[in-house]
Design goal:
The protein is of the alpha+beta class. The chain has 1 helix and 8 strands.
C-alpha cells in the first residue's frame, strides 16, 4: 500500500511540476505574440530609402569635416561646405538637420544639375566653453544620408581670436 502511495505521489509531483512549468511558459508565449503585433517606433527619424541607380545624383564635397580650432563663447561662427553633383541626374536635398539646437544649417534649395555646385552652410553658436563636435545630416535623392561634421574648442570671449 505504501508503494502505491509513493507511486501516486511521484506521478502527482511530476504532473504538478509540468503543469507549473506550462503555466509559466504560457504567459511568455502570449506576451511574445502580443509584442509582434505592436508597431515599433524608432527613436530616430527614419530615412526613406530611394532606389539608387547608375545615373543618380551624387555629392562630391571639398571637405566633410571642418575644425574651427578656437572660437569665442557666444559668438556665432559659420562654415560653408561646397559640393559638386558628380552624378548624371539633378541632386535634390530634401532636408538638412543638425545634431543640436546650437547648430543651424542652410543649403541650396533648388536642384543642382550634374557638374554644377551647391552649398551647405553650417552656423554654430556656442553657449558654453569646451570642446565640441556637431553633426549635420543631409537627406537627398541619392538614397543614403550624407554627414558633415564641425568641431572646435570654445573659449571665453577674452581668450579667443576673432572668427568670421
Amino acid at each position: 500500500m505504501l508503494d502505491n502511495f509513493l507511486i501516486a505521489l511521484t506521478i502527482l509531483k511530476f504532473f504538478m511540476n509540468n503543469v507549473l512549468f506550462l503555466l509559466f511558459l504560457l504567459p511568455a508565449f502570449t506576451l511574445a505574440q502580443d509584442k509582434k503585433a505592436l508597431p515599433t517606433v524608432s527613436a530616430t527619424p527614419s530615412v526613406q530609402k530611394v532606389q539608387m541607380h547608375d545615373n543618380a545624383g551624387a555629392f562630391r564635397f571639398v571637405e566633410e569635416t571642418w575644425d574651427f580650432k578656437e572660437i569665442s563663447q557666444g559668438i556665432p561662427v559659420s562654415h560653408v561646405y561646397e559640393y559638386e553633383n558628380s552624378g548624371k541626374e539633378p541632386l535634390i536635398i530634401s532636408q538638412v538637420t543638425a545634431s543640436c539646437g546650437c547648430t543651424t544649417p542652410e543649403w541650396t534649395k533648388e536642384p543642382v544639375l550634374p557638374g554644377k555646385r551647391g552649398i551647405v552652410k553650417v552656423t554654430y553658436n556656442a553657449a558654453k566653453e569646451g570642446t565640441f563636435t556637431k553633426t549635420v545630416t543631409i537627406l537627398s535623392n541619392t538614397g543614403a544620408p550624407k554627414y558633415l561634421t564641425i568641431k572646435g574648442d570654445v573659449v571665453s570671449n577674452m581668450d579667443a581670436p576673432a572668427h568670421q
